[in-house]
Amino acid sequence: MYQPHPQSKAAYKLLHDGVLALGRAEQRGIRLDLKYCHAETERLTREIKALEQAFHHTKFYRHWFKTLGGRTPNINSNAQLGNFLYKRKKLKPIKTTVTGQGSTDEEALLQLNIPELNDLLRLRGLKKIRDTYLKGFLKEQVGGRVHPNFNLHIARTYRSSSDRPNFQNIPKRDEEAKRICRQALFPSKGYQLMAVDYSGIEVCVSACYHQDPTMMKYIKDPKSDMHRDMAQQVYELKTYDPSITGHKVLRSAAKNGFVFPQFYGDYYRNCAISMACNWGKLPDGRWKPGQGIPLGDGSLSDHLLGQGHKSLEQFADHVQRIEKDFWGRRFRVYARWKEKTWEQYQRTGYVELLTGFRCGGLMAYNDVTNYPIQGAAFHCLLKAFVLADRELRARKFKTRLIGQIHDEMILDVWPPELDEVGELLLDVMTQQVPEEWPWIVVPLTVDMEVSPVDGSWQEMGSYVRDARK
DNA sequence: GGAACTCGCCAC
DNA sequence: AAACGTGGCGAGTTCC
């Protein structure tokens, strides 16, 4: 493994202070509801067994069994499943894995439109929750607490990683998985959990590198909204109105299907597919009326057919023009920064972070333009983590930091200290960090969430400072 | 019986 | 110039 190491004294100090602060968080750890973990593991096992029983009685399974000549299929084995689907049944995989095998991931299986495969996907999901998360917590717990590790010496970007257990990939988007997993994690008895994250820190840090005027305006003007603007452009909406059915969905499709992938270095074709995938199946490559999400009085496909987009190919051409406009006009200064940074890497063999680190070694174009942003964005959080840890201890708070998820800190808060802690974190993250680093030329903002006293990590709700204090 | 690998999937 | 960046981890599989 390529071993990164800091290139400047300031960079070294950040890692040194960071390791100590993270070590204290590891020591504190997080309370685990052991009884819940055991009971929920058993409940999931019962549900999994019932689903497996039902699956064993399907025509699909019996066929699979026969093709193995008496051997019992292992329904956890994607290799066996892939063989059955793509070699025995001769179905056509929609995509292959890196080694050229037919893919059996969720997207590929759904495309085959075989009802029994939905049961298999449901089983996969439940096993992931039980085996990776609940059992993973139980395996690592000591005296009813888990103490996740936070590493600063692994990621090539100088980001952090976490393990035993990984505190940075606990389900959040899928409601059921989120509930089951986060219901296991609690503040100390009589305490409450607090989470504070930087809003859009990677976008803000990228702006510190290139200072693209369009991007600066988007960051500084609270009325502007680049995801809204891109939704309007991609989907050709005359106006954007969050109260119109479907508009918020399209904003989020533009954000996660175009803006962020473009920043990471994706290109128009993938973006077009991603932004069109809600529109139902395209058996002949052409869209029909009434497909896709509801939009206004009709559907998305009605709207786009009206705009002349009859097929994915036409839509992709449209997205290609938008990509050209995105980098050639809208964010041309950002685009120039990418090119300059790439040239510099080719000349010197490394790329510099604003925080004093260097990323070297063999890198692709996307790596060179992404690493400095990803790394320095995390360093904002790490610097804030160090300062907050120092201040909490100096002021003899009972509240302590317990973890960090790239752009977010998690604290175990003593309830009487809640509002003071909120003030402290706001000050550290939005004032002290930018004061220490003059290269931060855009305002940084945060979002805060808290759990009820003795509430689990699943019960986090937005925190609004009490104005009377 | 363990190391190394593949695949899929969770987070930011 | 290249065609989505960074991690961890479980189960299955292959190799020694």
Describe the protein's architecture and organization.
- By secondary structure, the protein is of the alpha+beta class.
- Among the domains are: 35-136, Up-down Bundle (Taq DNA Polymerase, Chain T, domain 4); 204-372, no CATH class.
- The chain has 17 helices and 14 strands.
- Strand 9 (350-352) and strand 10 (358-360) form a beta hairpin.
- The protein is globular and about 70 Å long.
- The chain starts with 8 loop residues before the first helix and ends in a 7-residue tail after the last strand.
- It binds a DNA duplex (12 and 16 nucleotides) through helix 4, helix 6, strand 4, helix 11 and helix 12.
The chain-level structural class is alpha+beta
Which parts are unreliable, with pLDDT below 50 for 5 consecutive residues or more?
Answer: none
Gap between N and C termini: 51 Å
How would you sum up the global shape?
globular
Helix content: 40-55%
Strand fraction equals 5-15%
* Arrangement of strands in the largest sheet: 11-12-6-13-14
* Rg (CA only): 25 Å
Question: What is the typical, i.e. mean, pLDDT?
Answer: 90
List the helices and strands and how they pair.
Layout: H1 9-28, E1 30-32, H2 34-56, H3 59-67, H4 78-88, H5 106-112, H6 115-140, E2 145-146, E3 149-151, E4 161-163, H7 175-182, E5 185-186, E6 192-198, H8 201-210, H9 213-220, H10 226-235, H11 247-264, H12 268-276, E7 294-295, E8 298-299, H13 300-306, H14 312-330, H15 332-348, E9 350-352, E10 358-360, H16 365-394, E11 400-404, E12 408-413, H17 418-436, E13 446-450, E14 461-462
Helix pairs in contact: 1-16, 2-6, 8-15, 8-16, 10-11, 11-12, 12-14, 14-15, 16-17
The structure holds a DNA duplex (12 and 16 nucleotides).
